[in-house]
Write a structure and sequence with these properties.
Blueprint: E1 19-23, H1 32-44, E2 49-57, E3 82-86, H2 93-102, E4 107-112, H3 118-130, E5 134-139, H4 151-159, E6 164-167, H5 170-179, E7 185-187, H6 202-209, E8 215-219, H7 228-241, E9 246-250, H8 258-266, E10 273-276, H9 282-291, E11 294-297, H10 306-313, E12 318-321, E13 336-339, H11 344-356, H12 359-371, H13 376-395
Parallel strand pairs: 1-2, 1-4, 2-3, 4-5, 5-6, 6-7, 8-9, 8-11, 9-10, 11-12, 12-13
């Protein structure tokens, strides 16, 4: 999709091997953002000269709610990356900018999801632009899920230094149009994380984890906007018809865990809810996704979700709320179901409908086919097309 004020350009406007610099987290940092950029790197590598510039320090320890910022997987997703940016040391930002500029990129692609990174990113983007690069903001969201007083100012620092944008859902596209009227951009739906696919038989995965009945999975870190409390409140209705069902919550609690434990106790759910309050390395996540019947995203707000694309990559159907960009990723009745947010009864009814329809086995082919709609190659082609357009526009004055 070409944004408002778009001009048809493309890779033909560049050399045969355009130089693309990526800025954002890479291994040893953990999480979806580092993995996302690793897949972008791999998709671009056959088409361009690519260099990734990562963080030497991402967050100060006292601001990070998790137990570790590093990926502890046995075989983590890795690409070549140079750690140049200390996000909390402003006196080092100019050197990071000079290092990126010295590589002489045609474009700097910035992985953006959190206003906290506005100042250090802006410093590097300014240096890259002075060196002749066009700056593209790869925007996962432009309006944070949890808003803070300085968000608009910090986001504005990178918006002012961005020449174009790549957005991963219609929800972010709408945010962009409100914040940057006339922006040049492409929209490519968030691709699938396929590193969680496994050849382990589902029965073996379930036996290894001690899961005998239907299994609902909540995956990823826990914060209020993700609506885990709604899913917990839906469990009694699910258990009335599926008494062996289990809800597995796999991810660190970035909010206090005790209110959730109290609610589980109040509802008498006992062993029917398992809380794994930690970041799961890839091999554990892979086994859990193989064992689950359905991944549930009861979010109160969202733009898109890497968790949804993690589930699809593992062949797991989803039940998601109709908020933000999530419905755009769900083929109703084919890859899963959507429900209204903050509605335990509707969520329980969808889960029961899913199990009555045959569960994961009945949806597996639909998930496989639907997942093919979300391609890293399509993202890479759109990104290079946008680079060509932006450079042609700059050359034309």
């Amino acid at each position: 999709m070409v944004g408002a004020a778009g001009v048809t350009g493309g890779p033909a406007s560049l050399g045969p091997r355009p130089r693309i610099a990526l800025l954002g987290p890479a291994y040893p940092f953990r999480g979806g953002m580092a993995q996302f950029l690793a897949f972008v790197y791999r998709a671009l590598a056959p088409r361009a000269e690519v260099a990734q510039f990562s963080f030497s320090r991402q967050y100060p320890a006292f601001l990070f709610p998790g137990k570790t910022q590093h990926d502890v997987s046995r075989e983590p997703l890795r690409v070549p990356a140079e750690p140049v940016l200390d996000a909390v040391a402003p006196w080092r930002w100019p050197a990071a900018g000079r290092r990126v500029a010295a590589w002489r990129p045609d474009a700097l692609v910035v992985n953006w999801w959190l206003p906290f990174f506005g100042p250090p990113y802006a410093a590097v983007m300014a240096a890259a632009r002075r060196a002749g690069a066009v700056n593209i903001l790869l925007a996962h969201n432009l309006v944070p899920h949890e808003r803070r007083p300085l968000d608009r100012f910090l986001t504005g620092l990178v918006l002012a230094r961005s020449d174009g944008f790549l957005v991963a859902s219609a929800a972010v596209e709408q945010e962009l149009r409100g914040l940057v009227p006339g922006a040049r951009y492409r929209r490519v739906l968030h691709p699938v994380y396929d590193q969680y696919a496994t050849a382990e038989p589902r029965a073996a995965a379930r036996a290894a984890l001690g899961l005998a009945g239907e299994t609902l999975l909540f995956f990823g870190f826990v914060r209020a906007y993700k609506g885990l409390d709604t899913l917990i409140d839906a469990m009694p209705a699910i258990l009335r018809e599926r008494p062996q069902a289990t809800l597995v919550v796999a991810g660190e609690f970035y909010d206090p865990v005790e209110p959730y434990r109290r609610r589980i106790a109040e509802l008498g759910l006992g062993e029917r809810v398992r809380l794994l309050d930690r970041y799961l390395p890839d091999e554990e996540a892979r086994q859990l996704l193989a064992a689950a019947d359905v991944c549930v995203l009861p979010y109160r707000m969202a733009t898109q979700s890497g968790v949804l694309q993690v589930a699809y990559g593992a062949g797991c159907p989803v039940i998601a709320t109709r908020v933000g960009g999530l419905p755009e990723f769900v083929a109703e009745g084919v890859s899963g179901f959507t429900v209204p947010p903050d509605d335990p009864a509707a969520l329980a009814a969808a889960a029961l409908r899913f199990f009555a329809a045959g569960g994961r086995e009945a949806f597996s082919e639909g998930v496989r086919r639907h997942a093919q709609s979300f391609s890293w190659d399509a993202l890479a082609e759109a990104l290079l097309d946008l680079v060509g357009e932006l450079r042609a526009a700059r050359a034309g004055g």
